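Q: What structure does this chain adopt?
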Amino acid sequence: MDLTGGYPYWIVNSGLPVRFDPIERDIDCDVAIIGAGITGALIARELVQAGFDTVVFDKRDAGWGSTSASTALIQYEIDTELADLSRQIGESDAVTAYRACEQAVLKLAAIAGEVRGSGFTRAGSLYIASRRWHARRLRAEGALRLRHGFELEILDPRELDQHFGIAAAVGLLSAVAGQVDPYRLALGLLSAARKRGAHVHDRSEVVRWQVRPRGVDLLTASGARVRCRHLVIAAGYESQKYLPERVASNRSSYAIATEPLREAPIWLRDTLIWESARPYLYLRSTPDRRLVIGGEDDRVDIPVRRDARVAKKARRLMHKLNTLLPGLAVEPGFAWAGTFAETVDGLPYFGPHESHGPRVHFAMAYGGNGIVYSVIGAEILRARIERRRHPLQDLFSFSRKS
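A:
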């Protein structure tokens, strides 16, 4: 198992296919985005298409943060089950959130089609009961989704064994899902935005910013100054340092990419798997016949301490994989860890916070399906900047009740 440097599989597999230069001069623009990960890239794409003069910054190499650590299971299901979310925010809003994510998966498929090598493929999503006593809960969850028109099958133990070779009391098989190389997708979108006139600068840290009546002034570590009409903060879990209170909890997740499989069931090519336990095991395949397995989440968010746990967590993940799919010949290839944030209700935050006024927008695509949330958030932020009302802006705002 290669743990050298703790590099995620996506970076090892892709290298650095695109380079962006650090900022060297002052810039005036419509929108500045702090964060050149997948969230910032999707927002930049949306704003550039709308005709906004856009600048993107990142203190690291583009895509090097949580994006490169993501295992990128693309699902409309969020970490909070629909039934539980309904109890928190009401059934109508919960269904609206799930439906928006379903549509975002389909839109992401089209967006990923714009990037060569993004690795996006459509897939099904199999959600299995980790414990026998979870079966009743999952059947109720499936019935609720079916009642609201979501396309899925409720599979019993015989069907799970027959079609997937998995021993579980019940499974929910959703038709709308996918998988992608998040690193290549982010860099591809940023490259396309640059070709359309956007400025993309990595290794360019914004050290200070100040809101003024008609915009925001930014200062970078190199001394370059940027004047923008709107600022978008898309810095992942680090975005919380700009808020007066914490709105999410940091978690670390651990992952393995196996060596290419010689033989594997055909269904593994186009089916994502995740389980009802919390934290949960999740896995998917890659175009080069590997499996990506993740889970073993914990509350450690100090990088040195987190990375010191990678080897131990990797062994646990391999044990869980062998238990779930006995008889599958698998060898670990790469192991890594990444930190993310999650909210109480599992929903993201997009838009301004009262502490900074209407020209500073946050893009907090927190939770297990942050890439899907980012597709939605890009539309919400564009609408806000264009002074239009988006139907989801209240549900995904800091003012929602949960």
